[in-house]
Fold these 2 entries.
Entry 1:
Amino acid sequence: MIDRSPLAEFTGQVALITGGGSGIGRAIALRYAAGGGDVVVLGRRREPLEETARMAEKFGGRAEVVTCDVRDPEAVTAAVNGVVGDLGRLDALVNNAAGNFISKAEELSPNGWRAVVDIVLNGSFYCTRAAAQHMLAAGRGSILNVIASYAWHGHPGTVHSAAAKGGVLAMTRTLAAEWGGRGVRVNCISPGPTETEGAGAALWPTDEARDRVLGSVPAGRFTTPEEVAESAAFLLDARRAGYVTGDVLSVDGGQWLGKAVYTDPRAGRS
Ligand SMILES: CCCCCCC/C=C/C(=O)SCCNC(=O)CCNC(=O)[C@H](O)C(C)(C)COP(=O)(O)OP(=O)(O)OC[C@H]1O[C@@H](n2cnc3c(N)ncnc32)[C@H](O)[C@@H]1OP(=O)(O)O
Ligand SMILES: NC(=O)C1=CN([C@@H]2O[C@H](COP(=O)(O)OP(=O)(O)OC[C@H]3O[C@@H](n4cnc5c(N)ncnc54)[C@H](OP(=O)(O)O)[C@@H]3O)[C@@H](O)[C@H]2O)C=CC1
């Protein structure tokens, strides 16, 4: 549940959120709307996007839906240009859409690799490129890429997603440097395990797998989409995070540090 933000920090601004029909993307869209902004949510299925838009409109701003596969660069460009045409500006892009499943690398088909890399890495670039053309012309904008900590530490069974998220991290840092002097900030947010429509069934389908994932989080619980959305709002807000670019904010209860944590009870953690 997201309350109206007393900061009203996005009043008069417009955000495009990919994968805004579920999970973390929906929570980010609602948090942006709660901050007074207008939102456009993009994904392949219309119905969940419309549900997000209905929820966002309750905060009083405008909410639009675009059906589009981020793997299609022409469709992405048309979608982004349509947002600017309809709403007059584009202040924020959140590259949140993703595909994922667990597979042994040696058994992953080329098409399985391609599906995930195309959605996560190529799709993020297509959206970023199209959005940046407007943001650079306006001299302002914020791009937020949703990644995962295996982008830097790796994780067995996720070679496609880890490689793609690692590419998104490198893209983030490159573009932050390239566009830093032109008013466009580019950052990443890295959620911990979060129970969403896509993640639970794909990544921890059994109680045993779920317990194992939970056991890897020092905070001892799953991340909530709202927690990710609150940190996303901070990074998107130029008044609070205007000097932050090229960085990664982990919202994961310390999960990525997990392997480095000494688990002996004498060290205060078991
Ligand atoms: C372990 C703990 C880690 C915790 C951190 C987690 C960090 C990250 C989390 C997330 O990213 S959660 C988000 C998950 N959300 C989704 O995945 C939703 C969207 N997903 C999809 O659209 C599909 O899953 C998709 C496969 C990624 C893409 O769908 P599309 O319809 O385009 O592809 P398909 O035609 O169905 O398949 C393409 C290709 O991929 C092969 N494949 C699909 N699923 C599997 C699987 N479970 N195992 C192995 N291979 C799979 C499929 O067979 C196709 O290949 P070919 O058969 O044609 O060779
Ligand atoms: N949940 C977790 O534990 C974690 C998630 N993350 C990251 O957070 C982000 C959100 O994850 P989460 O909310 O769990 O995922 P969900 O699966 O719930 O949401 C993914 C969204 O992406 C959309 N999407 C997928 N493929 C495409 C495509 N080709 N074109 C357009 N939209 C697409 C889906 O909509 P549709 O199917 O209608 O297209 C869906 O709304 C992802 O980047 C994920 O990698 C990172 C770490 C942990």
Entry 2:
Amino acid sequence: MLAPLQRLEQLKARVREAIATPGFGHPHGLVSLALELPQPLHAAPELSGPRFQFAHSHRGELRAGYGIAAEWQAAGEQRLQRLREQARAAATDWHQLDPDETGLGGFAMLGFAATPEPTTTPGASDLPNAVYWIPEVALSTSGEQSALILSTRLPVEPEALLTRWDAWLERLVPLLAQPARAPLTPATLERGPSEPALEPWRDLVLAALDAIERDGPLEKLVLCRRQRLQGHRRFDLDRLNDALAYLFPSCQVINVRHRESCFVAATPERLFTLRGRRVEADAIAGTACRAADAARDAALTAELLGCAKNLHEHQVVVAAVGAALERCCTRLEPVEGPRVMQLNNAQHLWSLVRGEVDAAGDVFSLAELLHPTPATNGQPRRDAHDWLRRNEPFERDWYTGAAGIVEPDLSGELWVLLRCARVAADSAELYAGAGIVPGSDPVSEWEEIDHKFAAIATALQFA
Ligand SMILES: C=C(O[C@@H]1C=C(C(=O)O)C=C[C@H]1O)C(=O)O
């Protein structure tokens, strides 16, 4: 193993050396070059242009990408099947070079909006409906091992590639060694109106309850709100990432920026993890707030575990996740849970559903089967989707979509896009929702969503 590469000039020399090797001479396909970095990275520094980040403090994991080496976009009912075909074709011709034996390599990001219909509201989104994206430059940290990974389509002219990659290294490498910056004085953020406002929200919840209680298939609907926050300074993504990692160390801190605004989330909920043939999915539904006083907090936890309405809301999700996995698994393990997942601003009922997928299983087929779960949409899936399309006052865009890292063998992990905001310059739009089942009360659900908004709102104050 080579000594850790600490300086820009060393990395540039390594890149020049690598570009001259046969790996770059293939007449087609993709090549990724991984070079060892000396220290674990906790967050990916901000650079202008397209970027994404997935950072998980407790796990000590970071995956980030900048620029676009290759990407495929899709919308409509077939969006995941179409991306799957393209990802499969790309995977068969993707050469991985790992001269430092880091064990790390090129990867892609898969992300998609809540629903496959393209947005109809002008300006509502600057993210593609669904995208499979191989970044030109990536950072990867797993435990103590870190790498910088450069990827390109082939064939490529070596001198042009070297010029391009040198420019990336010059922009990025000096930022990797920067010490954490001192936090800013928390800013006052002005709350804009909530969409819907309280009265129309009450009507919406009552209409949902009516639809559920009528003789029909609907068992559960998840309704959401949008809240605008206006800051007095431009939000700083590095500081926002630091604050989210500090406040939510057990959540996945996600950023995705394709064009202008940055979609940011600190989500506790995995859609699934697929490693080898083993799949693990979270079922999270049923929420209580936290209390500063330990005895009160324990009482809230006990209440949540004993609340029939929350247990029913949770069970609907467990059953749907189990049924989805049954369709692609050769073996399912007994469900683990519900237990309580505690976050800074909320606590949730949480169960784990695990199994072994059949030979056809990959991230795309699992995403198709599992997304959206009744945790964010409702049950049954199609009826809930149609009801929400007719009744929700705005488009969800990527909120309650999913995103994550896909390995070249099409295994990987996707996260449900919750506790999120679309951040542009000095303003942010926050999205959050709550599950409605018989017994749900409009005002309690309104307050539950306020607690969920607090996840990103608190971090934005320090950005
Ligand atoms: C829809 C959201 O959260 C979902 C709804 C929950 C609930 O209603 O109890 C809990 C966790 C999430 O699955 C959100 O945070 O926006």
